[in-house]
Amino acid sequence: MAILNLLPLNYRRPALVERPATSASQVSTQQSEDGSVNQGDTSLKSIRSGSSGGIPPPLSFDRIIEGGTCPPCTVRDFMNYLIYVERSAENLQFFLWYRDFEKRFNEAQTADLALAPEWTLAMEEEAIARIKKEQAEKARVKPSKSVSPAVAEIFKGTDFEKPIRKPSVATAIATTPISSLAANNDGDPFGTPPRTPSDRGHHYPNSTTATTYNTAANEAFALAGLKAPFAIQPFRVELDRIIATYIMSGSPRQLNLSDREQKAVLQALCFTTHPSALRVVVRSVESTLRQQAHPNFIRWSICNGNPVRVTFARCLGVGTIALSTIAAIILTLSSAPRGFRALPAIGWVIGVATLVAAYKGMCVVLHGLHHRHVRPWELFVVDEEDHQQNEKEQDVRSEKSLETGSNSFENEPWVVKYEKRNLIRKIFDREVWIQEPALRQIQDTIFVQSLLFAFICAGGLTAIFVPLPGGNLF
């Protein structure tokens, strides 16, 4: 008989994190003597918060990102969670792109790298101080009164009519099919538009697309009060796309940056294309991923059943407890021997254990098999016999940007199909085996905790009903 490898019995699953415990702007970085930023500080690997409690080392953020986990805790599963559940996939998409960009920049051997000096911490602090000063000065200026509708109607059709602002280039990018903007995406499952570095090994597939992104980036610089940067800097075309996709206001995957952070990173990117120019954004994004998205993902992954199945399990647990209690009352009022009053304890153990496990998102039946329900977006695959085709279809699903450039999924075919799925099929949906050992260990621990609590409750109820005098009513 196999012995369960459990976590401590006082284990608690990760708490639900509504927002990061520490603001990215409060995270400090240190600068080495030669003026370079320590990689450990930039990547925020030292950041740990109370919200990450309950996550064993095999399921750590770094382990998932490095590909050291099995389904359903892989980086693709993490991406799917951020797309379909938390709806903040842009953070992970940008983070994965930045890791790849930083690696390619450091490995590049071209002469034009001299045109991309490092953006030091001193330069960053100076830029932020200048932005703060400008914002303070603007706050002291009394805002002009807006034109009332009545006055606007008077000047309508005259030379004094207020001109209508044209849609921004970012809006055009967001509404343009990504197939035309990123024709050479090569099926990248994590959706950042294709690379266009000046590393002499890649060529941009479409000059019109490059011009579109460059126009959008120049618009972002202009709105920030900056001049257009030098186009001959290495990786400039790629960074133009990143600005148009993630940083500028109205972009299809706009990151949740403050106005100060947005202006700071634009000033840095106007000066250089060095990875250190994105330090402010990376701090904010990685802080959110580590302290909010990752704990919530692990908490969500612990649930082995879909919401309908978990609700069914809760109802089943309550019903079992109620029937066992009714049986205990009937036996107490009858002339049956006292020993028979202990029989409902079996139902109490089953009911309480089922209810407690369901409260934590687990179905004990699925757990007994170490199975989980297939996610709704994984259910509807065109060709289930062709495994390579299945993986390709899942990659396209997790990409979420091949059609519109955004991470919206409301128009995907599986949404309507799953809504039309009847209740019974949802309760007994397709199952797959949980491959990740660390996740099975967490679920085993929660199941044992549920059993122990059930035995305590059943023992207490039995101790109440057995000593009672019999009613002898029948």
From TrEMBL:
Alphabetical UniProt keywords: Membrane, Transmembrane, Transmembrane helix
Stretches with biased composition (Polar residues): 33-42
Region (Disordered): 20-55, 180-207
Transmembrane segments annotated in the record for this chain: 311-333, 345-369, 446-468
Residue stretches of biased makeup (Low complexity): 21-32
Keyword Membrane applies: yes
Record's keyword annotation contains Membrane: yes
Top-level taxon: Eukaryota
Protein name: RGS domain-containing protein
Natural source organism: Podospora comata
